[in-house]
Structure formats: C-alpha cells, structure tokens
Design brief:
Elements: H1 2-13, H2 15-51, E1 55-59, H3 63-71, E2 81-82, H4 83-92, E3 95-100, E4 105-106, E5 109-114, H5 117-122, E6 126-129, E7 137-140, H6 142-148, E8 155-157, E9 173-180, E10 190-194, H7 195-202, E11 205-211, E12 222-226, E13 240-241, E14 249-250, E15 252-257, H8 260-269, E16 277-280, H9 282-325, H10 327-335, H11 340-371, H12 373-384
Parallel strand pairs: 5-10, 7-9
Antiparallel strand pairs: 1-15, 1-16, 2-14, 3-15, 4-5, 6-9, 7-10, 8-9, 11-12, 11-13
Helix pairs in contact: 1-11, 2-9, 2-11, 2-12
Length: 385
C-alpha cells in the first residue's frame, strides 16, 4: 500500500511525463486491436457485398475495376458497355438484367442510374417518401441524404464534369422523392435515379422548345434545342433521346440469374476472349483480392509487433532513465532503511499504475470501435475508393 501511495504521488508530481507515458502505452495496446478489427470488418464487408452480387457484365478489361464500379460504386471507371448487353440477357430468359450507370456524382455521393428492378434484386426498401417514378426524380441512400443535407421534397445538383466545356454534360437539378432504409451496404452512400435521368445528365437525352420569331412569316418558325438544367412538369414531355437505345452507355449490367443452371449458361456465353463483353462473378474477384489483403495483413501484424516491441522498450527506457534521475531519492530511501525489495515494489507499482491508466484509456476506444466497426470499415472503404 505504501509503495502504491508513493508511486501515485510521484506520478502526480511529474504529471506531464506521466501523461505522455500513459498515452504512449494506450496506443501500444490499442493499435494492434484496432488494426485487426478494421481489417476483419473490411474483409467481411467486401465479401458480403460480393456474395450478394451474382453476376456482372461489362466491357472486357479489368475485372476488379468492373466489380468495384458495378458492386461498390467506387471511382473506378471501366470502359462502358451498352444497353445491348442487358437486352441480350432479357432475350435469353436466363435472368433479370439491371443496367447501372455510375459516371456522375453529387458532392461526393455517387449517382447511380438504374431501373426499379435494382431495388427488388438488392432488397432495398424506401423508409421515407416513395420510389422514383419520373425523369429527374431521385431516391437517396441514408448516408447520401445526410451528406447532401436534403430530404424528401428537396432538390440537389449533379456535379459538373468540366466547367469550361460548354459542349459537355450540364449539371442537372433533381428532386428527392424518397430516402432508403439503411442497409449497411454501399447503397447507403448512393443517389439512385432512373437510368434515363443519368443519360440526360450525360447529354444523350434533352428537351426541345419551339420558338416563334415575331414579325416574321410563319415559315420562319425555328426550333432550337435547349440543354435543360431542370426537369419540370411543363417540359418533361419534350425530353427525348436520339439514336438506338441499344447503344446507350452503361457502366455495368447486374444480372440476377433465375437459378444455378441459368447462371452457368450465362457465364459460358461470355467465355470467348474475342467478345467485347465479359461476365464476372464478384465473389471470385473479391476472394482473390481478400487473399492478397490477408498477406498484407500478415505483414502489417509483423510490423505492428516490431513497432510494439520498440515502443515497449522505449517506454521501459523512459522509466529507467526517470529512475536514474531519482538516484538521490533512492539513496535517501536506503539511508532510511528501505531495502532493495521496497525499491523494486515502488518501481513495479509505477509501471502497474501507468499500465492500468493506459488500459482505462484504450478500452473505451476499442469498445466504441467494436460497436461501430461495420460503419467505420464501410467509411474507410468509401474514402479509399
């Protein structure tokens, strides 16, 4: 008890040094747990999303880019394919094709142009408002709604692609008709619009406004094309698209096969390396990615162990030097009759108090992270993308 009292008194007197030691020890204890927890949760989040995505079609190229763009809505942009890939799946009768257009964003939230089938395939439900029904309407994921700061009835703008390119895609103001219930998946961070709305943003669809020139003969009536920044009840009927819809661009096509046999047949149809479209099973791609991450995790563990040992040695050295500076106090203690055992108990008491204080700081951090590991890991995945 006397050793604890003296150790506590010394730590209070040198409070700044003690605070540094406690924080350093807390980091040494917490960082390995935090690292492993985030890696494990990130792996689980990646695998869960991949397993919920049966099949993706896209232009032949990087399979990883296709999966990240089509399943996780990251900033990876594979070469776009066309709506013809979706129509071929419909014609085959082997599954439900869901086109995905993920080129644009709004204040960092990915704008995903798709069809209503997407919500059925993913099992997404609208928690507030209703689903999109008209051109220019949008449904927001819960996190996207928080990021944009809008609710049902509000409006937001798509990000301009190039402020100096007048021939490029214009920002489009869209109205919010619903907010999705949280799913814990990348859909929470996404703005969903009808795929035709995405094509309007890209400039493929536009509206017409007829202008009559006053003072001229009726034959001088001209028509001009206007790139609308807003779709209203008055101009929505004038919007149309030029060209063959089968050639309109999409980032990827999510396919939900009707059964295992249909999935096998579909994959077989895209095995030809000469074909322009490839079929990718996201689970296979992510499992290969995770296997690489596990090798990296093993390296991180080794580095963390070495750093932890170095930090522990540094803390031990700091305590040793502090005791060397207290040599006059120790000589006084010996003169008063204290033995080496008393001095050892005093040193161990200080180490114990510092360790307990470090645990007191590290434990809440670790517990809070464990409670929110899924959210934190999803946020890190989104940030890294």
């Amino acid at each position: 008890m006397n050793a604890l009292y003296l150790a506590a008194a010394n730590l209070r007197y040198h409070w700044l040094r003690s605070l540094v030691l406690v924080i350093a020890a807390a980091l040494v204890l917490a960082v390995p747990v935090l690292t492993r927890t985030l890696l494990a949760q990130g792996e689980a989040a990646l695998v869960a999303r991949a397993e919920a995505t049966p099949l993706l079609l896209g232009t032949r190229g990087s399979r990883l880019d296709l999966v990240m763009a089509g399943a996780y809505f990251t900033d990876d942009f594979p070469e776009p394919t066309t709506m013809e890939a979706a129509e071929e799946v419909w014609d085959s009768g082997l599954g439900i094709p869901v086109p995905l257009h993920t080129t644009f964003s709004s204040e960092g939230a990915r704008i995903v142009g798709t069809t209503l089938d997407y919500f059925d395939v993913r099992g997404l439900a609208v928690a507030d408002g209703r689903n999109m029904a008209l051109l220019g309407e949008a449904v927001l994921g819960a996190a996207a709604a928080d990021r944009l700061g809008v609710g049902v009835g509000g409006t937001f703008l798509s990000d301009p692609e190039n402020l100096f390119d007048l021939d490029g895609a214009y920002p489009l103001e869209m109205s919010v008709t619903g907010i999705l219930a949280r799913s814990g998946m990348p859909d929470d961070d996404v703005v969903f619009v009808d795929i035709q709305t995405a094509w309007v943003i890209e400039g493929i669809g536009h509206g017409h406004e007829d202008i009559v020139i006053e003072g001229e003969d009726a034959a001088a009536t001209a028509a001009r094309i206007v790139q609308y920044a807003r779709i209203t009840d008055e101009n929505i009927d004038s919007f149309h698209f030029h060209g063959d819809p089968a050639g309109y661009p999409v980032t990827a096509v999510l396919v939900a096969p009707y059964d295992a046999r249909s999935a096998t047949i579909l994959r077989g149809r895209y095995l030809d390396a000469e074909g322009s479209v490839q079929a990718v099973v996201p689970r296979d791609v992510i499992e290969a990615l995770v296997s690489r991450l596990l090798r990296i995790a093993a390296l991180v563990d080794a580095v963390t162990f070495v750093v932890g040992v170095a930090a522990a040695l540094a803390l031990g050295l700091a305590l040793f030097l502090s005791w060397r500076l207290r040599a006059p106090e120790m000589r006084t203690a010996f003169a008063l009759g204290a033995g080496r055992g008393t001095i050892l108990r005093l040193a161990l008491a200080e180490i114990g108090l510092v360790t307990i204080a470090a645990l007191f700081i590290a434990s809440p951090i670790v517990i809070i992270l464990l409670w929110n590991a899924e959210t934190v890991a999803s946020g890190l995945i989104a940030f890294g993308s």
